[in-house]
């Protein structure tokens, strides 16, 4: 309930994250994003028990050399990932981030769950484990799988609404200004209020329409019955709704793809908003965006790189020389050189500077418009060599 309350009031997130951390036996939790293009960390909300200075230190100094970052880009949405999934714990304990940031705080593990991904960023939930709790175990993983869908729904809905606070007295005005189509529904599926975007959508009758009795309906036959059950369950509260309606697809009459979310208004502080509109739930509908993999994922698949090779690849542009990379990852310079040779063989380049330019080519949205002619030339040369080697 606290997690869903946070979807309408972001000031609730610190308390909600603290409750999730307690349930999962951790010392603190946070919501953050990592950017594949700039390889930066952005904190959105954090458990009040976490030291903000330590979080800032990670963001400013250690996020770019965190060996778990590549695993975050590849992780399936909703699947828990801990340090043991990234690689041997002993190898992580040899890294600079462990020696300088993790160990001094008494931390031993970090559990993450991908909530949403696009071409440049991955949004995640993270849980810190202290040495008193030990490494993430099967119980914590199972509990994470139970609550992750709810956190994901709250984050997606909060992103669609994008309100600082949703108080019953002011919600209607803010609601009507939103670009997303939002419809308040009672437990029978009857429309009790709709914002301007929803009225336009209903008038077109392409995605949603009004059925006899004022009930909401869809042109997608696979959605109609599911919506009726979701609205009925939503009127009974969060527990009844479960993980239904987190993000369900809707195919419009013209073949375009949309995505819907349902938030119950029958639990927690949301009951005030529900009462103001005599509603059991709110339905949000947006046009679906094409899911595009992040640049590191594209690079790894293009050149068939191992996770370690990908980490070295990304580190070349951030850390520079062999010695700096070896120190950051807690490995020998010989090992770094071995992986660099493999990278050269797989990508077809000959020097580290060419690797940097190659990376720039993949992370520049329109390489043809990149002002650096050398970047364009390197990327084109590599594409030609890989095409010739693969026969396509």
Outline type: globular
Helix content: 40-55%
Beta-strand segment tally: 12
Tally of alpha and pi helices:
19
Strand order of the largest sheet: 2-1-5-4-3
In round numbers, the mean pLDDT is: 81
Task: Give me the secondary-structure category.
Answer: alpha+beta
> Which regions have little confidence, pLDDT < 50, spanning 5+ residues?
163-169, 365-375
In short, what is this structure?
By secondary structure, the protein is of the alpha+beta class. 49% of the residues lie in helices and 19% in strands.
Keywords, separated by commas or semicolons:
alpha+beta, 19 helices, 49% helix
How is this structure best described in words?
With about 400 residues, the protein is of the alpha+beta class. It is about 50% helix and about 20% strand. It has 19 helices and twelve strands. Helix 18 packs across helix 19. The longest helix is centred in the middle third of the chain and has 24 residues.
Please render the helix and strand layout as text.
Elements: H1 2-8, H2 13-23, E1 28-35, E2 41-46, H3 52-62, H4 69-74, E3 80-81, H5 83-86, H6 89-93, H7 96-102, E4 107-117, E5 121-130, H8 138-161, H9 168-176, E6 181-185, E7 191-194, H10 196-204, E8 208-211, E9 215-218, H11 221-234, H12 238-241, E10 248-251, E11 257-264, H13 270-277, E12 281-287, H14 295-303, H15 307-319, H16 322-329, H17 333-347, H18 352-363, H19 373-390
Antiparallel strand pairs: 1-2, 1-5, 3-4, 4-5, 6-7, 6-12, 8-9, 10-11, 11-12
Helix pairs in contact: 1-2, 1-8, 15-16, 15-17, 15-18, 16-17, 18-19
